[in-house]
Amino acid sequence: MESISQRKKDHIQICLTQNVQSAGNTTGLEAYRFIPEALPEIDFESIHTETRFLHKPLKVPFIVSSMTGGTTEALQINRTLASAAEARGWGFGIGSVRAALENPEVRSSFIVRDVAPTVPIFTNLGAVQLNYGYGVEQCRAALELLQADGIVLHLNSMQEIFQPEGDTNFSGLLEKIRVLCTQLEAPVGIKEVGFGIHGELAAKLYEAGVAFVDVAGAGGTSWIEVEKHRAKDPQLQLAADTFAEWGLPTADCIVQARACSPNGFLIASGGIHNGLHAAKTLALGADLCGFGRRLLEPAIEGEAALDKLMARLEFELKAAMFGIGCKSLAELKGTSKLVRTAPPPARA
Ligand SMILES: Cc1cc2nc3c(=O)[nH]c(=O)nc-3n(C[C@H](O)[C@H](O)[C@H](O)COP(=O)(O)O)c2cc1C
């Protein structure tokens, strides 16, 4: 189990010190622009961004994407992120809790409910673990550990094959997800980790009973790139370079998922670095927007730095809403003021 904790340490270190930005992709959000409303006819102070997630209120449609756990450093990061999420009314996702389920010694590194008593918290496991002995019991334990309001299972197939110790049997998982959704009392969500979920898959997942889909599209952190920095095998490193372009950009994921599933609860994430990006994802049809690696450095710096960034992200969202004359998230979601200024990518 030492190996899971060591891997988590490596991941944080690599994400902080190496260039792990997707080299061959952008989020696609730069292809969209808001048409400014010179006469917005609203009072900036009257803009509302409140919403709900996992049956609890949020002050803004933002979540901390699932990142870390299982080490002393991760505990500090998680507690800072969770406490800031509580203060600002964001949802909070923890990194995979598998390490804690398999090694009780690291359980304490996932304890955050005391600093985030009211906001929605979701726990996290790899969906592939359903093929490696995990089932409803382990998911219940993952929920209990965090006193979480829901669980998100991550789909990280491409990361696993580039990871020397990866679990690579992804067969039959949709059916197992379907069964889990019927057995588990809490909501089950599905996320990718930065290569995206296309529209047809999102529709299949909703049909299987998942409560939310987080597209975690391409254009931000690339987990092939992260694993490349851990790999000792030059063959894997060269193959990782070949796959620099892998992934469906975040903007395309949202457009596709919304087209295929008009009512599914949809989270946009993957390469979201500012509040204008977030506003674009919401205008494209997402219900919430998630921030991952963008929060990591300030979380290590401390809560003041993190709070400052989160406040700016919120201001930027409101500024975009003001700039197009939208008072509420419902108005932003249906806006005709987001236009595509670049042609859609050519289909192969
Ligand atoms: C240090 C780090 C650790 C991560 N660990 C997990 C994890 O345990 N489970 C998970 O579902 N996603 C994990 N992710 C992926 C993020 O949730 C997110 O989907 C991905 O980084 C893309 O978003 P970004 O471009 O905003 O970073 C991790 C990301 C980072 C930066």
What does this protein structure show overall?
- There is one protein chain.
- The chain has 348 residues and is of the alpha/beta class.
- It has one domain (2-340): TIM Barrel (Alpha-Beta Barrel).
- It is built from 14 helices and twelve strands.
- An eight-stranded parallel β-barrel has the order 4-5-6-7-8-9-10-11, surrounded by five helices.
- Helix 1 (2-17) crosses helix 8 (223-230), helix 2 (72-88) crosses helix 13 and helix 7 (199-208) crosses helix 10 (250-260).
- The chain is globular and about 60 Å long.
- The structure holds flavin mononucleotide.
- Flavin mononucleotide binds next to helix 1.
- It comes from Marinicrinis lubricantis.
Question: What is the number of beta strands?
Answer: 12
Total number of distinct structural domains: 1
Mean pLDDT: 95
Structural class: alpha/beta
* SSE string: HEEEEHEHEHEHHEHEHHHEHEHHHE
**What share of the residues does DSSP label as strand, in percent?**
5-15%
Helix content: 40-55%
User: What's the level 1 CATH class?
Assistant: Alpha Beta
Report the span from N to C terminus. Answer: 43 Å
The shape is globular
CATH fold-level label? TIM Barrel
Write out the CATH superfamily name. Aldolase class I
